[in-house]
Prior knowledge:
Layout: E1 2-12, E2 15-26, E3 30-35, H1 41-49, E4 57-64, E5 67-68, H2 74-78, E6 85-88, H3 92-95, H4 102-114, H5 118-131, H6 137-140, H7 150-162, E7 168-172, H8 180-197, E8 200-205, H9 208-214, E9 217-222, E10 225-231, H10 232-237, H11 242-251
Parallel strand pairs: 3-8, 3-9, 6-7, 7-8
Antiparallel strand pairs: 1-2, 1-4, 4-5, 9-10
Amino acid sequence: MSLEIEDLRIELGGRAVVDGVGLSLGDGDRLGLIGESGSGKSLTALAVLGLLPRGSTVTGSIRLDGRELVGRGDAELARLRGKRVGMVFQEPATALNPVRRVGAQIGESLRIHYGFSKRQAHERAVRLAERVQLPDPEQIVQRYPHELSGGQRQRVAIAAAIATGPRLIIADEPTTALDVTVQAGILDLFDEEVAESGAALLFITHDLAVLARIVTRAVVLTAGQVAETGTVTGLLAAPTHPVTAALAAAAYQTSFVASGP
Length: 261
């Protein structure tokens, strides 16, 4: 798998919110996309899946395995979502359907993309719930999102994202709303999944300390543009842009900066 983004420009209401962003990654790569709120990192990820807000205009290039995605119709992009590309959103409480049992939501992409029966999807959902270390998988897949803790809901979202064995996993601020202990468990889960599956990981956050735990390289965004790129250890040790320097200073105030992946 390869993802290549070149000179990506996204306009909303006639204003450029992403301007000239580029990045690339392949199988097994771990790339961080980091920046302050409003820097354009989430919009960049959403552009890959064709999930930008209505009225957006996109120019530049987004190639998945050499195939251009910019300009593709929604039906074609929908075939990529949940199959070749898995997405984990920041707020599982809003990303998950509140009136559907979590097992059905974990297995949904298997039914859509591979024609699994309801029973097959349920059995697979139980195995995936166990894989993401949810307690009592047989019982938990029968519950609704509101019956789970924040950390458990995020694990459900991860199980749904990896259900079809995607070659690219995009994680958009997946630990922001979680306490430090739960954050560590979720990061370990991403680490294990990428190591075992060989998938590529695009991890989005505003926290350089979190990136130090999970990725090797990072692209720093500010005001929709690339501020600098480099290894996470290099960005922490010798940032060259004021935004990166501020992110590094904040990282050193947390306990996350220890050893990278």
